[in-house]
Amino acid sequence: MAMGFSGCDLSADDIAGKFQFSRGMRHSYDAGFKLMVVEYAESTNNCQAAKQFGVLEKNVRDWRKVKPQLQNAHAMRRAFR
């Protein structure tokens, strides 16, 4: 069923698809990678580090808060639970 927008012929599924937000895949990162991102963020800023390494800026902020834990952890450790 097409919607009656002028010049547009969109189905209800097309419209619903445009407004659905997907969370995407959940990623886990090891402590070595997190430290590398944190060091880059300290030399630049959180936003640039997030873009450079393809992670969320919130992750960079969180990792900067736990930097001492990351430094003491094994490089391949992924989670602190």
Quick synopsis:
This protein is mostly helical and 81 residues long. It has helices spanning 12-18, 31-43, 46-53, 57-65, 67-72.
List key phrases describing it.
81 residues; Arc Repressor Mutant, subunit A; mainly alpha; 5 helices
Which blocks of ≥5 consecutive residues have pLDDT under 50?
none
Looking at the structure, the CATH topology of the domain at 27-81 is Arc Repressor Mutant, subunit A
| Total number of strands | 0
**DSSP summary: helix tally:** 5
The proportion of residues forming helix, as a percent range, comes to 40-55%
Q: Round the Cα radius of gyration to an integer and report it.
A: 20 Å
**Main beta sheet strand tally, sense and closure:** none
User: Distance N terminus to C terminus?
Assistant: 49 Å
Mean pLDDT: 83
Q: Helices and strands, in N-to-C order?
A: HHHHH
Shape: globular
Shape-level CATH architecture of the domain at 27-81: Orthogonal Bundle
Task: Kindly estimate the percentage of residues that lie in beta strands according to DSSP.
Answer: under 5%
